[in-house]
Write a structure and sequence with these properties.
This protein has 271 residues and is an all-alpha fold. The protein has helices at residues 10-34, 39-50, 52-64, 70-76, 84-108, 121-132, 135-151, 157-171, 173-176, 183-210, 214-229, 235-261, 264-267. Residues 124-227 form the CAAX prenyl protease 2/Lysostaphin resistance protein A-like domain.
C-alpha cells in the first residue's frame, strides 16, 4: 500500500489549501446574500467559511506530522495551564484599544448620533457568539496552533509574527473585495486592514509565547473582532483608527517585551 510522503513545505501547502477552500466557501456566502437568504443562513455560512484554515490543516495533518493523532494534537494546544495574569493583560490591551477607539469616534461624530450598532441585549449576545464561532474558533488552530509554531522553529518570534500576519491578512482578500469600496478608498482600506492584522499578529504572538495555550489567542481574536463589530462608524474610518491603535500597541509591546519574547533564543526553549 502506498504511503503519503511528508510535505517538504508544510506552511506553504497550508496557506495555499486554506485559500483554495476559503474562496469558494466565501463565494457561497456572497451568493446567499445576493439571493436574499435569511440573515441566519448568511451568518452560518460565514462561520463555516471562517473554518477553512482548520479544514486545510486537518486535511494536511497526516502529511505534516506522520504517525501523530489529530485529536491529541488539538488537545495539546489547550493543555498548558492558563495564566490569569496573561489573560488579564491581553484583555486590558484590547479594552484600552476599544476605549481609545470610542474616544476617537466620539470626538469626530455628530452630537446625538449613537456610536454603537447594537441596540438590544439579545443582539449583543447573538453577535458575541456569532463572532466566537467564526474567526476566533475557526482560524486559530491553523494560523497560531500550527503555522506560528512551525515558523518559530526557523525564525525569531517577531519575524514569524510578521510573516504570519502578512499571509493571514492576504487570506482575507475575498472579504476586502466585498466591502463595497473602489479606487483609492479600497487601497486605503486594504493598507489599514493589513496594518491592523499584522499588528494583531504581533500582539497574539507575544501572549501566546507567554502562555502556550491556544485559548489565549482565541480570546484576543474574539475581543478584536467583536468590539470593532459593535461600533457604528464609516468602514474606512474605523479600520484606519483600528490600524493606528493596534500598530501603537504592537510597537509598545515590542519595546517592552523585546528581550523576553521576541528573541530567537527565548522561543528556542520550547523545542
Amino acid at each position: 500500500m502506498l504511503t503519503e510522503k511528508i510535505l517538504k513545505r508544510p506552511i506553504v501547502s497550508f496557506i495555499i489549501l486554506s485559500n483554495i477552500i476559503f474562496w469558494p466557501l466565501f463565494s457561497l456566502v456572497g451568493a446567499a446574500k445576493l439571493l436574499g437568504f435569511p440573515s441566519i443562513v448568511f451568518d452560518i455560512m460565514l462561520c463555516i467559511s471562517s473554518w477553512s484554515s482548520t479544514f486545510a490543516f486537518a486535511i494536511l495533518f497526516k502529511r505534516i506530522y506522520k504517525g501523530q493523532n489529530f485529536v491529541k494534537y488539538v488537545k495539546d494546544k489547550f493543555k498548558d495551564k492558563i495564566k490569569p495574569s496573561i489573560i488579564i493583560s491581553a484583555v486590558i490591551i484590547e479594552v484600552m484599544i476599544f476605549i481609545g477607539l470610542i474616544f476617537i469616534v466620539k470626538a469626530k461624530s455628530n452630537e446625538g448620533c449613537s456610536i454603537f450598532s447594537v441596540t438590544s441585549f439579545g443582539m449583543f449576545v447573538y453577535l458575541f457568539f456569532k463572532n466566537l464561532l467564526a474567526g476566533p474558533t475557526g482560524e486559530e488552530l491553523g494560523w497560531r496552533g500550527f503555522a506560528l509554531n512551525e515558523l518559530q522553529k526557523k525564525y525569531s518570534p517577531l519575524k514569524s509574527a510578521l510573516i504570519l500576519g502578512l499571509w493571514w491578512g492576504l487570506w482575507h482578500i475575498p472579504i476586502m473585495l466585498t466591502v463595497g469600496l473602489t479606487g483609492i478608498n479600497l487601497i486605503k482600506y486594504i493598507a489599514c486592514f493589513m496594518t491592523s492584522i499584522i499588528s494583531l499578529s504581533i500582539i497574539m504572538t507575544v501572549f501566546y509565547n507567554l502562555n502556550k495555550n491556544l485559548l489565549v489567542t482565541i480570546i484576543i481574536h474574539q475581543l478584536s473582532n467583536f468590539l470593532i463589530g459593535i461600533i457604528n462608524v464609516k468602514l474606512t474610518d474605523i479600520i484606519m483608527y483600528y490600524a493606528l491603535l493596534y500598530f501603537s500597541a504592537a510597537v509598545i509591546l515590542i519595546a517592552v517585551k523585546h528581550k523576553r519574547v521576541f528573541k530567537e533564543e527565548y522561543f528556542g526553549r520550547y523545542f
